[in-house]
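@channel sequence for tomorrow's demo:
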Amino acid sequence: MNNDQRVEILSEQELGLTITRLASQVMESVKDIGDLVLLGIPTRGVHLSRVLAKELESLSGKAIAQGILDPTFHRDDLIRVGTRMVEPTELPTSVEGRQVVLVDDVIFTGRTVRAALEALQAWGRPQKVLLLVMVDRGHREVPIQPDFCGRQVPTRRTENIELRLSKIDDEEGVFLLQG
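structure tokens (generated this afternoon):
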């Protein structure tokens, strides 16, 4: 893909500011930061969750429970979206009675989040579940909306949004890939 098909939505600096804002919003919305559990949805949601946990730890001075919730086997659209290597669900603690924030890079149809909610129920009954996404690109097929959103970017169905993080990509930012 050549570079004129990639449009920067958030620069490295803007992404950092957005992560700080999202962390502040999460802190304001949870009653007790000690009850908070961040669960990243593979693949990019896991990496974003780790970055967010570090930011929350910096802001609160407390360790943040962070893990992985893979909803692959709870999807109702595997034939349409295909499969990827399943990442094992790793919960740092019981979710029972906790305040859980599901973290994903992009919300599109909402089906991944619907599957994640179903997968989460297999692990217990959280007191509260919130959704944080870096980008909401629209095109919802189920009535799911994020509680925390870095940026809304209306897209065509043929376009994609890519979150890039320096720990895994050697660059940071959010990009629109026009296809």
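heads up for whoever presents: The chain has five helices and eight strands.
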